[in-house]
Amino acid sequence: MAAPVREVARPGGAGPAVLERPAVADKKKSSEPVKTKKRVGSEGWEVRIYNDGLNTREHVARCLVQVTGLTEIAAYQTMMQAHKHGMAVVGRWVYERAEMYRDALKKNGILCDMVPVDEDI
Length: 121
Prior knowledge:
single chain; alpha+beta; three-stranded antiparallel β-sheet; two-stranded antiparallel sheet; 3 helices; 5 strands; 32% helix
């Protein structure tokens, strides 16, 4: 629920009212360091595409070839995997490259994301 805002009257009573910000209680800062960190660098990241029902299969396959450099056959197989099963892994790359591919695919209207991959497997 929002805190009430107090109106301040202007001299002469003309013109718009000026609103003062309500006082906000200071938040306690924890002395513990943040335990989660963004995983970047040489760790593996998978780019995944999803079947969205909006894009044609040809468009998805063409974008995979143009954006990621997959062969036409690999792009077609990846697209069909997403079409049949709802999701397909396009590939595994370092963070920066995976992010670049994900952003380019999204720019082309492809429903996709990227997830970190445990190297232990």
